[in-house]
Design goal:
- A hairpin with a 2-residue loop joins strand 11 (143-144) and strand 12.
- This protein has a single domain (39-336), classed as TolB, C-terminal domain (Neuraminidase, 6 Propeller).
- It has 345 residues and is mainly beta.
- 5% of the residues lie in helices and 43% in strands.
- The model is unreliable at 1-19 (pLDDT under 50).
- It has one helix spanning 4-20, and strands spanning 38-40, 56-60, 65-71, 76-81, 86-91, 97-101, 107-112, 118-122, 127-131, 137-141, 143-144, 147-148, 155-157, 163-167, 188-192, 199-203, 209-214, 220-225, 237-244, 247-256, 258-259, 263-264, 266-272, 278-283, 291-295, 301-306, 313-317, 323-328, 331-336.
- The protein has a five-stranded antiparallel sheet with strand order 1-26-25-24-23, with no helix packed on it. Strands 2-29-28-27 form a four-stranded antiparallel sheet, with no helix packed on it.
Length: 345
């Protein structure tokens, strides 16, 4: 019979061996629990880990997957495969994956409003749209001050019905994810008024605003800056602002994507849980960095979920909103957590 010290040493050796064993993403050769790729960097993350659940690859075959969003009534996850100009759907009831919309305007970010209608950021058409129940499309935004939007990227919905979105322009920089064209306006973050449909520029004090999310109480707005892809001096950070009415104030750095020994990759899609932690997709550095980085409300990195691909976006979904879905380059992944998503999508 092993004493406690020997038992812990044996368990540590087994965990090390599991971490070194090539992972079979087909699920035919299961990963040993606890999943070695769900990592605590701070004891504050421990309560969000589940010891007997795995990271699963639910689908692969995309060219560049983005924009996961959960439909609570249909119990399906929707996401975009931008280069293939389609939206895909994963059904919770049986795991079936099928093409949901084709063509899809080279859409990137997706979400659902408080009435259950899908909202999408279309790279190809350089606009934000809402798909109505009868199958028609309502254009929510395509111009600002008479000039075409660059290529809207990600969108979220406030309880007052307003739609907030980022416009970094990636879909117009090449033909792979849209149509190559000249950017007509500065990259910025916008708000669409729910009654007048008027657009307000919230901020342009960020190089390339990408993923965005609200705090649980809707008093803060977080935005990921991916400007380092085209601006050498751009910081690799997530910024935060205080929300004041229909505007922003007090913009500041929330966290750096610098990870000791790994360098600094980029945050892309971000979501908040009910405790105020920010779950950020991350990548562009390599092994030991790609996946999801979790930051406490004070901006300290407390955990990681490692993936074999660059992670583009994340979404808390499922009936209990306790399952984190991750779009990673060519694939869709998911893992159950003890964290609960703060918002509907």
């Amino acid at each position: 019979m092993l004493d406690r010290r020997s038992f812990l040493a044996t368990a540590a050796s087994a965990a090390t061996l599991a971490a070194q064993t090539p992972r079979d993403w087909s699920g035919k050769n299961p990963t040993r629990y606890p999943d070695p790729d769900v990592i605590s960097l701070d004891k504050r993350f421990d309560k969000y880990k589940i010891g007997n659940t795995p990271i699963q690859r639910l689908y692969t075959g995309c060219m560049w997957a983005e924009g996961p969003a959960w439909n609570g009534v249909g119990r399906y996850l929707l996401w975009s495969d931008i280069p293939n100009n389609v939206q895909m759907r994963w059904l919770e009831e049986n795991g079936n994956v099928s093409t949901f919309r084709n063509p899809a305007g080279y859409s990137n970010g997706n979400t659902f409003d408080w009435e259950g209608r899908q909202i999408a950021c279309e790279h190809g058409n350089r606009r934000v749209v809402r798909y109505e129940y009868n199958g028609t499309i309502t254009v929510l935004a395509d111009k600002f001050e008479g000039k075409r939007l660059n290529a809207p990227n990600d969108a979220i919905v406030h309880p007052d019905g307003s739609v907030w979105f980022t416009d970094p322009g990636y879909g117009a920089l090449m033909n792979y994810e849209g149509f190559k064209a000249t950017l007509e306006i500065k990259e910025a973050v916008y708000r669409i008024d729910p009654k007048t449909k008027a657009m307000t520029k919230l901020t342009e004090e960020i190089y390339k605003p990408n993923g965005l999310c609200f705090s649980p109480d809707y008093k803060k707005l977080y935005v990921a800056d991916t400007g380092a892809t085209h601006y050498p001096d751009a910081p690799k950070v997530i910024k935060v602002w205080d929300i004041e009415g229909a505007g922003l104030r007090n913009g500041r750095r929330f966290c750096s994507m610098e990870l000791a020994g790994k360098g600094a990759g980029l945050a892309d899609g971000i979501r908040c849980d009910k405790d105020g932690n920010i779950w950020s997709s991350a990548g562009w550095v390599g092994a030991g960095y790609d996946g999801v980085h979790i930051f406490a409300p004070d901006g300290q990195r407390i955990g990681q979920i490692l993936l074999p691909e660059i992670c583009s976006n994340v979404c808390f979904a499922g009936t209990k909103r306790n399952r984190l879905f991750m779009t990673g380059s060519q694939s869709l992944y998911a893992v159950y957590t003890e964290a609960i998503g703060a918002h509907i999508s």
